[in-house]
UniProtKB/TrEMBL annotation:
Entry-linked Gene3D superfamilies: 2.40.30.170, 2.40.420.20, 2.40.50.100, Helix hairpin bin (1.10.287.470)
Position of the signal peptide: 1-20
Family (UniProt): Belongs to the membrane fusion protein (MFP) (TC 8.A.1) family.
Keyword Signal: yes
Domain CusB-like beta-barrel as annotated: residue spans: 197-270
Residues in CzcB-like barrel-sandwich hybrid domain copies: 70-189
Gene that encodes it: acrA
Taxonomic lineage of the native organism: Bacteria, Pseudomonadati, Bacteroidota, Bacteroidia, Bacteroidales
GO molecular function: efflux transmembrane transporter activity
UniProt xrefs under Pfam families: Beta-barrel_RND_2, BSH_CzcB, YknX_C
UniProt xrefs under InterPro entries: Beta-barrel_RND_2 (IPR058792), BSH_CzcB-like (IPR058647), RND_pump_MFP (IPR006143), YknX-like_C (IPR058637)
Keyword entries, A-Z: Signal
SUPFAM superfamilies with a match to the protein in the record: HlyD-like secretion proteins
Designated name of the protein: Acriflavine resistance protein A
Length: 346
């Protein structure tokens, strides 16, 4: 009986030792661990920098002035049509000047009468035959007549609407026979010797646009003709609806072929001061805190590499920091690796 108990105890101890040995052998393996197959790409920076950004723009005049008569009256004639190019000093419209002419003629007559009276009274005053008060009254009437004549002459001259500079008639707001008030717009005059290309830039891209950045403008209405320009104006107030900022690029237009309202395609040069690294979007992972990282292959093992990302491109996402030339970045199979996992690049 005692021998049987001893045998049972020995078997139990042997089984327990085997279980302990198997438990110890299930720990991490390094030298003999099987490598996880992955696919990777070698990091190569683009020497040309980030890709150009394209926008849809519209051509607008260098300046637009609303022209109006400073006096009230009836429009007698309009001498320039919409779209017509006019030179500086060209008469664009006229008011019916008959009433103004009559007022001017009356003012001239009053001035002539006051001047004649002043001459007569001057002789009496010089001889001491005219009281001082009468002489002062005559001088006052003469000055009043001169002022009235000047006002009447100015109103008569203002019955003609003259182009203050050379340009193109944009839009006529009145027609012949209409009554107009002082300051009421008759037509707009556009200055188009130089034009501006206006483009809306989204708020997440406006920081990359600065005055001096080169641009290439293609105008479809002119058969795709291209023009080179430089950004001059950068808006600082966003459109509350589209959340875009206005950027303007001036262009010379001596021939007048560029017309306000033409739609164009604008390509702003990329950031050539930095070397761009572009990776497939799937290779960039996000932590729970929103940090971006990629899996790299270093000394045959998987390693986490925090990165900073830029804009999306047609080939993937731009990496602006965290990687150097020659590094291997895992693009497929990263789901099976962790820090320090042996990997095999296929």
């Amino acid at each position: 009986m005692t021998s049987r108990l001893n045998i049972s105890c020995r078997l139990f101890l042997l089984a327990a030792g085997a279980m302990a040995a198997s438990g110890c052998s299930s720990g991490p393996r390094t030298a003999g661990e099987r490598a996880v197959p992955v696919r990777a790409v070698t990091v190569v920076a683009d020497e040309q920098g980030a890709a150009d950004r394209e926008y849809i723009g519209v051509i607008e005049e260098e300046s637009a002035t609303a022209l109006s008569f400073p006096v009230q009256g009836t429009v007698a004639s309009l001498t320039a049509d919409e779209g017509q190019r006019v030179g500086q000093g060209r008469v664009l419209a006229r008011l019916d000047e008959r009433n103004l002419q009559s007022v001017y003629n009356g003012a001239q007559a009053s001035l002539a009468q006051a001047e004649d009276a002043m001459k007569r009274l001057q002789l009496l005053y010089d001889n001491g035959s005219l009281p001082e008060i009468k002489y002062v009254e005559a001088q006052t009437k003469l000055e009043q007549a001169r002022s009235m004549e000047q006002v009447a002459r100015k109103n008569l001259e203002d019955s003609r609407l003259v182009a203050p500079f050379g340009g193109v008639i944009g839009k006529r707001a009145v027609e012949a026979g209409e009554n107009v008030l002082p300051g009421q717009t008759v037509c707009t005059l556009l200055k188009t010797d130089a034009v501006k290309v206006k483009i809306p830039v989204p708020e997440n891209e406006i920081a990359a646009v600065e005055p001096g950045k080169k641009a290439r403008i293609a105008v479809a209405a002119l058969g795709g003709r291209t023009y080179d320009g430089v950004v001059k104006e950068k808006g600082v107030t966003a459109n509350p609806v589209s959340h875009t900022y206005e950027v303007r690029i001036p262009l010379p237009n001596p021939g007048g072929e560029l017309m306000p309202g033409m739609v164009c395609r604008v390509a702003l040069e990329g950031d050539t001061s930095a070397r761009a690294i572009v990776l497939p979007s799937r290779a960039v992972q996000v932590t729970g805190r929103g940090d971006r990282f990629v899996w790299c292959v270093r000394d045959g093992k998987a390693a986490i590499a925090p990165v900073t990302v830029g804009a999306l491109t047609g080939d993937g996402v731009a990496i602006t920091g965290g990687l150097t030339d020659g590094e291997l970045v895992i693009t497929d199979g990263y789901q099976k690796v962790s820090e320090g996992t042996n990997v095999e690049v296929l």
